[in-house]
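Reagents: none. Just compute today. DUF2891 domain-containing protein.
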Amino acid sequence: MATTEENDNNRHMTTNLSSLRRRFASLALSCIHREYPNKIAHVLTSDADVQAPHHLTPAFFGCFDWHSAVHGHWLLARLGRVDKNLTYECRQALRQSLTKENLEGEVTYLSGEQRQPFERPYGLAWLLQLVMELDEWAEEEKESSEEILQWRENIRSLELIVVNRLSSWLPKLSHPVRSGEHSQTAFALGLSLDYARHVNNSIFEQLIEQHSLRFFSSDKLYPFIYEPSGEDFLSAGLAEADLMRRVMYKNNQEFLQWFNEFLPRTNLPSSLEPPSIADPTDPKLIHLAGLCLSRAWMLEGIVESLPENSEQRNQLYELSKRNAQAGLTAIDESHYEGGHWLGTFAVYLITRRGIHPNEINKP
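Predicted 3D structure written out:
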């Protein structure tokens, strides 16, 4: 039986999580339909391409840029699903964005000339995560699921474009991109693999697994000492390991052998400790807050695959907690530079998304 102190601690954790979910929902609600400031990243093919963001991408025009708008919608779908206190507000916002007309506009935009590499792979992977979240929400919703099913249907054509685009790109990618920003290969493949397995797209799943092994299976003694770069929001090394534990999930012993050669038990570099953030108002330097958050959930996923009560598992778990605390503390609603996107990384962490991707994870 739980002690009074344990019960008090559990209530405190639940209250704290509830407060965090409310806070991060508010960040997304305040920006997914906020058009400016806006960073449009596209090639102009004619004067017709010079239009306001809401004309170019009518569903995902807010949150400063397209990928942040996409994963801001993911955040609302995630929290609307796992926290009934937030469902009404999240659904209201999603209802405004995920109309058939708006998503047809997104299809038109992505299908345009010169847009093959648009948001590849980062933004495209987050679009698949949004699809996955809507799909799971519709599956579990007992009442009023018709609207969610309609959103799921509305986004299907865009989903098909994204899957086809990533599927045609991967075989042509000669080497993985090991950056700490949007171009990174491993992170996007991890998100995409979770999606492929959920929707039972075995062809896409096998393609991702095949090329993940091609890119990363022979890696050893990863030089974590070279991380992070000063504007990273992803760890190339940890994202690779987080992807490989997904790819090798059917044979955990295979992953353990790979991981212990990738990051030996005796080699835990100090560079994985949370970095300091000199200026949270700088849109690039604040990336380091996202780095702390993504490191935290990647380490947590890796830890789940390590032997219980091992020193390595305990060390990485404590490192995950330190990075999580640093990342959550760094989020400041008063600075749009981080406020328009960091909520997504925080929600991915606190709702334990991607740890066990085939399960419904409710905190």
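Confidence is low (pLDDT under 50) at residues 1-14.
Action item: order primers for follow-up constructs.
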